Amino acid sequence: MFERLMLAFAFVLMGLAPLAAHGPTPQRAEERVTIAAAPDKVWALLARFGGIGDWNPLVKKVSVTGGDAAGAERVLTLEKGEIAEGLDEVDPTARRLSYRLLKENVEAFPVSFYTATIEVKPSGSGSEVVWDARFYRADTTNEPPEGLDDAAAIAAMGDFIRQGLEGLKSQANGQ
Amino acid sequence: MIAVAAMARRLFAAFGLAAGVLMAGGSEAEPLIAVVSQQAGVVTLIDVGKATVVTEIPVPRVPAGLAAAPDGRMLYVTHPDLGLVSRLDLASRRVEASFRVGREPFGIAVTEAGRTLLVSDWSADALIRVDAATGRETGRVGIGRAPAGLVVDAADRRAYVADRESNQVSVVDLAAMTRVAAVPTGKAPFALALSPEGGALYVGNVQSGDLSVIATDRLEETSRFKIGLMPYGVAVTPDGSRVLVSNQQSGTLAVVDPTSHAIVASPKIGAYPEGLVALAQGRAAAVAWAEDKVMIIDIAQSRVVAQVPVGAGPRSLVALPDP
């Protein structure tokens, strides 16, 4: 941990941000859930960029800077470590937001880079939430070890989204 | 009997395809484009005017980049995960040969009237020159980290390569196979395109969401402006009047005036658009990666006019050149 902090500090000193390295073969995840609650109510939960810890059970803690507008950043504490995400675009009319991974930590989450979009659509008297992501495995060389390969990335991203959507559903319906 | 009939049909179809390729530049013939689908492992040929699939050619696993020979008869496809480049014969509609090239071959261009390939190697940080007939490496030059897209000028004098993780474009003198410049850009340059007369190079910077303009005479970045989220495709219309950028995360096409740098239109063109090509008659085509479609766009009308389903995970595409 100390080493990592020193490394991060060194990058700051050098004026360089470590780029999220990623190879050329992206993967895709898309999950959806229907929720009885109205779209505005679901969107209110989603639009709070630092609120993900309230409804995604895999997120233990969140710290956010920059509020809920494009450019905001959040650090998610997961079971095995932290990752950082940046909010790229918020469209309240379409009830849609897009974000990306800013700082990878393949021990905590075996994905080297991702962008993702969550959208709330009206569905009957309730909502449908669509969450999709485009991502790269943790080890982008041609012989990734088990746990850092496409399968691990697909499993982790799918799990994060599915548990998130289920949590969002309980939270929205419970309020 | 059935087999003979099937073979006759196949021969006829192959001939029809070859004729289509030959006539691609003619007045009534519509242009063909070739599309790589990474997950499905296929190359699809599309008739742009009819918005139909002409044929689908299976290729080795995880194809990524592609380039066409100037006679429109051969296609070359990179397979970064396999360290291979495949050559497709369009008349027989099959992979004719696969060559080992570098470690993770990604971007590709065809030069010297089809005799030579240039390939960017994502993990070896090099531009590799390959004999198109034999697949033998005939030269290489070290460039920046994670080189992705590459373009070659009309005279085959220089290659410009987007060094994604070095935030620069490497300029390579092709006669000497030496790097003559590294021009700083925005963060994570990926795709690039030259203006028709070759004076301006447009570079999409994926992470910083902007477009760099490089003057090729001075080899300097003369402008950089915001373009959209995750710009993954760049093209210039044949008449040079518009620069087009596909913004993958925004799902939009930025239509740019090259003089004022104003974004004059920004239509939605599908989910996660990436590879992009400008065509004749005011059209463009882009892949919608998450929708497994190719979108045909009317640039003046600023909208998608046709959608063509293709194999899963389309990444890049190329217009087949006039013979």
UniProtKB/TrEMBL annotation, chain A:
Species name? Ancylobacter defluvii
> Could you tell me what this protein is called?
MxaD protein
SUPFAM superfamilies per the UniProt record, alphabetical? Bet v1-like (SSF55961)
The record ties this protein, via Pfam families, to: Polyketide_cyc2 (PF10604)
Top-rank taxon of the source lineage equals Bacteria
Q: Which residues form a coiled coil?
A: none
| Residues in the signal sequence | 1-20
Q: Which UniProt keywords apply?
A: Signal
List, alphabetically, the PANTHER family matched. Answer: BLL4707 PROTEIN, SRPBCC FAMILY PROTEIN
Automatic annotation (TrEMBL), chain B:
InterPro entries for the chain: Host-pathogen_enzymatic-act (IPR051200), N2O_reductase_N (IPR011045), WD40/YVTN_repeat-like_dom_sf (IPR015943), YVTN_b-propeller_repeat (IPR011964)
**Is the keyword Nucleus in the record?**
no
Q: Where is the signal peptide?
A: 1-29
Report the protein name in the record: YVTN family beta-propeller protein
Q: Which UniProt keywords apply?
A: Signal
Matching Gene3D superfamilies, A to Z? Answer: YVTN repeat-like/Quinoprotein amine dehydrogenase
Q: Does the keyword Signal apply?
A: yes
